[in-house]
Structures are given as C-alpha cells and as structure tokens.
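Illustration: Aspartic proteinase CDR1-like.
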Amino acid sequence: MHKDSPLSPFYQPSVMSEDRFRAMIGRSISRARYISSIISGTSYSDDDSDHGYSGGGGGGVYTSIASSPSSSGEPSAAPSSAPGPSSNGQSKVIPNDGDYLMELGIGTPPVKIVAIADTGSDLVWIQCKPCDSCYNQTDPIFDSTKSSTFDNSVSCNDTICLAILPSSSCGDNLLCEYMYGYGGGSITFGNLARETFTFSSGSNNASSSIPGIGFGCSHSSEGQFTPNVDGLIGLGGGAASLVRQLDSSIHGKFSYCLVPYAENTTSILNMGDKAVVNGPGVVTIPMTSGNYTFYMISLNSITIGNDTIPYTPDDTTNIIVDSGTTITYIPDFALTKVIDAVSKTINLNKTKDPQNYLSLCYSHSVKDPPYPFPNITFNFDNQLGHDQVSVVLTATQTFIQSTDDVICLAMDYSGKSDNIAIFGNVAQQNMHVGYDLHANVISMAPADCSKLSSS
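Result:
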C-alpha cells in the first residue's frame, strides 16, 4: 500500500504531491550520482545545485565509510548459504514514495518488519534496541532479548563480516561492527548478528523460517529515513545480500512486480521456484560483468516511433537495473535525441517542470483523459543467439506527474555524472522482473502487478 494513499496507515494529508515528488526525485538524483562514483572509483559529493537539487536523502546504496578504508571493491567469498526447508518464499511489496517496501518476519517468535527492498545494495539491516541515536520509527524497534534465536557473536573473521567489510577493524570485543553511509549523507552503524527470518509461503497463510541470516543490528541511524521504514533489505549481487545468503534455498532466483505508485494495492516478491518469469512478451537478457553489487545489462539502442537512437557511449554500454532509483538515467548524448524523438509525437503544450528537475514536461492534469504518449522501446544486447531483445515501455512506465497539472518524461541525465545509466523503478512498474543469479540473466514481462497471483 502506498503510504500516501488515503487508505494507507502511513497517509499524511498535510503533505502536498509536489513535496512528495521533490523528495522522490531528489533521492533519485543523489543515488545516481553515488552509484556513478562507486563504478568510476571517484569521490562522491552531493552538494551540487544543478537540476534544482542540493543535498538530501541519499538513495540506499551503501559503502563502508569507517571500518574498511582500504577495501579493494572486489567481492569476497560468499558466506555459507543459510539452509531452508523450502525452495519458495514470498514477501509483500509495498510502494513507498519512490521506494518499494517489503514485509517479512525476524526473530523467534517472528516480529513483522517493513523495510526498503533494494537491488542496488547488499547489506541487510534494521534498527535494534538499545538505539543510541535512532530515527523515529513507527513500528516498535526490534528487541533482540525477546528472540530465542538471536546470535550476537559474529566475529570479524566470520564470512558474513568479511563479505561486508573486507578490511574490517574490530572493537575491543573482536565482534564485527560496521558503519555504512548513503549517498545523501544518511548513516547507519551497529554490529552484525545472525537471526531467523520468516517469509510467507504464498499458500494458506503458511510461512517458511530460515535460520542464521546475517544482518546489521543498527544502534544508530541518522539522516533522511522515514518513520514507516524499519530498515533495508539488500537484494544486490554481493555475497552479503539476502538473496546470496538464501542461495541454497532459492537456487539463485527471485522476482518482483512493482505496482504503479498511484494504485492502492501491494504486489509480491517471490524467491525460489515461483520466481520464474513467463507469459506473453517475456524477454531474457544476459547480465554483463561489472561491479558485483549491481545488476547490469547491455543497452544497444532506444526506439521511439520510426526513430532508433544508437546507445554507444565511449566507455560502456551497461545500464543498471535498480529498484531503488525512481527515474531512468541515460547519458546526455542519448537523452537529447530521445527528447527530440518523443517531442515529435506529442501534441500538448510544453512547459517547464515546476520542480526544476526533469527536462521534458507538458501541461496535462491528473484529471484530464489519458493521453496517447508514445511507447519507448529499450533494445538490449543478447548473447544467447540473437542480436538484441526489446522491452517496450508504455506511458505508465515513461511519464510521471511532477505536479497535478504537469506531466514529465521520467528520464533524465544525472548532471556531471554523465555516463551513468540506470533503469529505474518507474520503468519497471507493471513489469514482472526476474533475476537468475546462477544463469546470470534477467527476465522481464509486462504484467498487471496488482493482480499478480501469490499462489
């Protein structure tokens, strides 16, 4: 359920739609710049003022900022995958102001938590008691003393610690401690622990509990965290992520289907055998090599109507598929041509984005009849026997309301980080997206995510 829906328990009637949009895009810009700094190995600064943005909430991509100053960035050996009684697991996926949340249980007996689902990071963490300096959280903060399965004895030589902090330094007790920072200055730190995680099995309200999952027990979190979020679930490709830790149970497979922001409903994140994407329009795209946390595929061209725009940057054709970045980023050399091609097909009055973020906007009210915006097709390289495979994006996946009276193309470039390319979560709305980490492929198929069956 979207927290800004009147039906949602997180609804805040005093927050204007323009304010929600501003916060959402601000985080998106910050995240794109930070991802670019990780990939390029350059320093990150979030004090730029172009695009009308200066600082803010970050994006949910983590780096060690204290305990591993000399980390090489290479993946460590995966920690021992936690065994599970079932090869299937599910979580409810909840849209949340540009971020998507997932529900699961932690501890014994299980306590329900709601955390950001993030394919662009690896660390799993929630706020824990005692919380020396925690952000204000709606749910009760997790009390490990009430769980019979909590294990706080994770040492600095433990595989899960080495996976997160390859060059960690320990405290006096030799237990694994961490400090991780967001792109926009938000920080969380605490100690690593192990605990039992519980997921829905998707049938008859049954559940599946998996012991020994490594996670960050955060005792201090500062920055732009919202009260309805208990923490973050890293779903990236690194060794410490939830999906890598569950590998022996889910066979490297997970999928999600993101409902559009405006719909007052939830969807499903599947792990294991039920994560297979199939049906009309499904395409399978090989992932490329790159930073081990991020899921990258190779973009070949973008088609609008009769115009096909080659995508040939100097250094890379990789584009990151990311659930935590709102809009889609492509370099300026391609964005300029995309805007020209889209503009030729639209007979609406152009206007400036009142928020001063996005480059192509039109006067179009949320109360107006739907406009026939053009489809935008992303053509990806396919190493499985064909030249390319194509993902067709409709207006739901390519345009976003900046205000109640202005609609904008949900694509842009990230300022000075001009070579970064990210396939954001607006583009993934009403798309069933599946990851197979063993076959090293991503599958996508159009879907009505609000009706995706959990059976």
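Reading the tokens back as a structure: Residues 46-78, 80-86 have pLDDT under 50 and may be disordered.
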